[in-house]
From TrEMBL:
This is Short chain enoyl-CoA hydratase. InterPro entries: ClpP/crotonase-like_dom_sf, Enoyl-CoA_hyd/isom_CS, Enoyl-CoA_hydra/iso, Enoyl-CoA_hydra_C. PROSITE patterns: ENOYL_COA_HYDRATASE. PANTHER family: EG:BACN32G11.4 PROTEIN, ENOYL-COA HYDRATASE. Pfam families: ECH_1.
Length: 255
C-alpha cells in the first residue's frame, strides 16, 4: 500500500503522482523510497512513465518539517536521494515530468532529471537551496549547467529566484511550456507517442546522450556504432522499414 505516491497504468503509460499536496508534495523518506521502488520495478507492460504532482505544486523539495533529515544530510543524500535520482535516469522506460506547478529545491532537480520536461505556464523552477543555507543537490549541479550553460546555472543557484516555465523553455532547461489547461492533454499525447514507439531505441538514445558529455568524439562514435548495430538487428528496425515501404504506420514492439 503506497502512502505518498499514486501509481496507475493505462495503455503502457504509468502515471506516478507525488501525493502530499498539503506540503506541496515535499519529499519525505517514505516518498523517496516509494518513488524509487516504483521506477525500479516497472511492470513489463509499461513503456513510458509520467511523473507529476497532486494539487497546485509539482514538488517543493525536501520536507523541511522532517527533523530527522537535518541530522546527517550527507547520509540522506547518499542513501535516499541518490537512489531516487538513479531510478529516474536508469528507468527502463522514458520518463516525462509533467510539471503542474512550482518545482523547488530537490523537487526542481527531480523534474529536471526526467527525459522530457513539459511544464504548465504557471509553473516555475527554483533552486531554493541557498534561501535556507544549503547547496544545490539532487543532481542539479550536474544537470543544469549541461542544459543551460554555466552562466545561467550559476545565476539560478546563487540568486535562487523562480525561473518561470516559459523562460525555462526558452533557455533549454525544459522541452516545452504549455497553457495550464492544456498540460494534461499535451502530456498524454507525448506519453502515448513514446509508449507506441521503438522503446529499445529510446534506451539507446538515453545511453548515448548520457555518455556524450563524458567522453571524446572517437569514443562517442564507437558507442553510436555499437548501439546502432544492436538496433539494426532488432525487430523494430525491420518493422520500421517495412512500414515505410508499405506506406503505413509502424507497429513497434520494443524488440
Ligand atoms: O536531506 C536533506 O535535508 C538535504 C536535502 C535537501 C534538498 C532540498 O530540497 S533543500 C530545499 C527545500 N525546499 C525549499 O526550501 C522550498 C520551501 N518551500 C517554498 O519555498 C515555498 O513553499 C514554495 C516556493 C515551494 C511554494 O510557495 P507558495 O507560496 O506557493 O506556497 P506556501 O504557502 O509556501 O506552501 C504551501 C504549504 O506547503 C505551506 O504549509 P501551510 O503553511 O499551508 O501549512 C508550506 O509550509 C508547505 N511547504 C512548502 N514547501 C515545503 C512545505 N512543507 C515542508 N517542506 C517543504 N519543502
Amino acid at each position: 500500500m503506497l502512502e505518498t505516491i499514486e501509481v496507475t497504468t493505462d495503455n503502457g503509460v504509468m502515471r506516478v503522482v507525488l501525493n502530499r499536496p498539503e506540503r506541496m508534495n515535499a519529499l519525505n523518506r517514505t516518498m523517496r523510497a516509494e518513488l524509487t521502488g516504483a521506477l525500479r520495478d516497472l511492470p513489463d507492460e509499461v513503456r513510458c512513465v509520467v511523473l507529476t504532482g497532486a494539487g497546485r505544486g509539482f514538488c517543493s523539495g525536501q520536507d523541511l518539517t522532517d527533523a530527522g533529515a537535518a541530522l546527517d544530510l550527507e547520509a540522506t543524500l547518499r542513501d535516499e536521494y541518490e537512489p531516487m535520482l538513479h531510478a529516474v535516469r536508469d528507468c527502463r522506460a522514458p520518463v516525462i515530468a509533467a510539471v503542474n506547478g512550482v518545482a523547488a529545491g530537490a523537487g526542481a532537480n527531480l523534474a529536471l532529471a526526467a527525459d522530457i520536461v513539459i511544464a504548465a505556464e504557471s509553473a516555475s523552477f527554483i533552486q531554493a537551496f541557498t534561501r535556507i543555507g544549503l547547496v544545490p543537490d539532487a543532481g542539479g549541479t550536474w544537470f543544469i549547467p549541461r542544459q543551460v550553460g554555466a552562466a545561467r546555472a550559476m545565476g539560478m543557484m546563487l540568486l535562487a529566484e523562480p525561473v518561470p516555465a516559459r523562460q525555462a523553455a526558452d533557455w533549454g532547461l525544459i522541452w516545452e511550456a504549455v497553457p495550464d489547461a492544456r498540460l494534461e492533454e499535451v502530456v498524454a499525447a507525448r506519453a502515448a507517442q513514446l509508449a507506441a514507439g521503438p522503446t529499445g531505441c529510446y534506451r539507446a538514445i538515453r545511453e548515448a546522450l548520457a555518455a556524450a558529455f563524458q567522453q571524446d568524439l572517437a569514443a562517442q562514435l564507437a558507442l553510436e556504432a555499437r548501439l546502432q548495430g544492436a538496433a539494426g538487428r532488432g525487430a523494430d528496425f525491420r518493422e520500421g522499414v517495412a512500414a515505410f515501404l508499405e506506406k503505413r504506420q509502424p507497429r513497434f514492439t520494443g524488440r
